[in-house]
């Protein structure tokens, strides 16, 4: 009877525990990361009797956790990937709607500005039309400012979000380190603490939403976590930290430092996965290039419009004034170069734009080793050729070209020598849009007239005609009107033998036919006249002039109704002046203002569409990984309800065994009374 009683008692104990485990499963059905548990039973060692071995009941050997390391790893990696893509997508969708919006983008303002120029060119003496040009120029500058500021706000948000995310990472890594310690202590008795393991696994999964991690199991049941290229975030019961700090090169762009004890290491470029990885990837792939492309466009518009205005005359016969502010203002030039916080000298160089049409959308890094300068283009890592070579005398101006000899469109002016090891971040285009301003406020100062005019003498006998001259080369912009006026007027007297003279018998100095040769009556003949100081004009003479017919080129001091320079301003809308490759000649080496902005919008739109597709794909992968994990580890209430009934029946049956043992024992006792 004693053996039968012990067998019944072992069944009661085993099934009571099974009922407790089942109840534990049911009550934690909504607990994040909980893994279903079940009991593992085995028979007790049998007892030998004369008839053989008799069983002695059952015992619990383990409370097993339904868990797969493979499925959990799959879930962690899918979570990190999806969080990365979702963080990237949420940011780039805002950028796409800003740039491509019909009311928020640059294109409408560009179109209005050139439309106002077209209207003014049709009636160059009309003051209200000229005033409209000034108004639209101011609106265009404000639009560049606003778009750039909105993008800058995104950068500020990313900085704040990086700080918040690193705080969450540090909180979770500290929690995981504590759980590692508790699990190692609890597992020292030979059994696994299932609930602590689930809590740690859920903490790691949550950590994966913020940053991609690599998990390495240890012999004491703890897990070591690594980020970046192998930086140990959690080792046993010790947790390191991640900190978002102002960048060494650009303090407005936060970077990620790995802090362990007293050491600190920058790992921004090594971070991948999770929300933090997505934010860093978005900033590097989309935000910074967009700011630079927008700045390059603003610089090109300012440069080309101001340059063209400087090659014409206003209503007063004066050289045209700049419509947009000087982007090489010393204050602006200084802001384009940022000294690294680790520099030991206080040298502050200035970066001047020398050719806006060949600027790239990249930033550059300059380093000084005490003897020589080395520069690198950050967008593709290409090494730049720095000229002139040393030794250097200060103040010193440096120019930059790639390995193919292509000028990068800017120069760096150093007032004194940096210290060995000093580094500088050069951002030629980053602030181009936010600093753009319209400075001209007098409509009559818009230079719509060309500086040189031509006319045929009224007493000419033949029917020869001369076109209005076109300034094809300006020695400088603004032009030197005094030098041009000094070279004019210039008379061209046809000698009847295919040439022009002044005085008769003397060829006109600086006059060349293109192509070279004698004048051909009845055809269009193109000539160029060198006015000195680098100024050249082109014009045509056609028809059949007679010997002695005279044509005169004069300074256009009263060209009130002249719109030739205004038409050149209008032509800038379609002229290829953005991103020109100086080593290539011909059509297709650059983009117009509209096409340049269109390329930017198209690039961001393509990245946005790709991010949406990636979001759908990674979302599906994450759902599948979650479903696979839940299929193994999730709690099924129907199954648990069935287990409750089953274990309750087992419990009742074990109790019945005890009842039988008791009845037998009572019968035996009563037989001796």
UniProtKB/TrEMBL annotation:
Residues 93-324 form the Flagellar hook-associated protein FlgK helical domain. It is found in: Bacterial flagellum; Secreted. Transmembrane segments: none annotated. Pfam families: Flg_bb_rod, Flg_bbr_C, flgK_1st_1, FlgK_D1. Residues 342-428 form the Flagellar hook-associated protein 1 D2-like domain. It comes from the Bacteria. SUPFAM superfamilies: Phase 1 flagellin. Keywords: Bacterial flagellum, Cell projection, Cilium, Flagellum, Secreted. Residues 5-34 form the Flagellar basal body rod protein N-terminal domain. Residues 633-670 form the Flagellar basal-body/hook protein C-terminal domain. Belongs to the flagella basal body rod proteins family. PANTHER family: FLAGELLAR HOOK-ASSOCIATED PROTEIN 1. This is Flagellar hook-associated protein 1. It comes from Pseudomonas benzenivorans. The lineage of its organism: Bacteria, Pseudomonadati, Pseudomonadota, Gammaproteobacteria, Pseudomonadales.
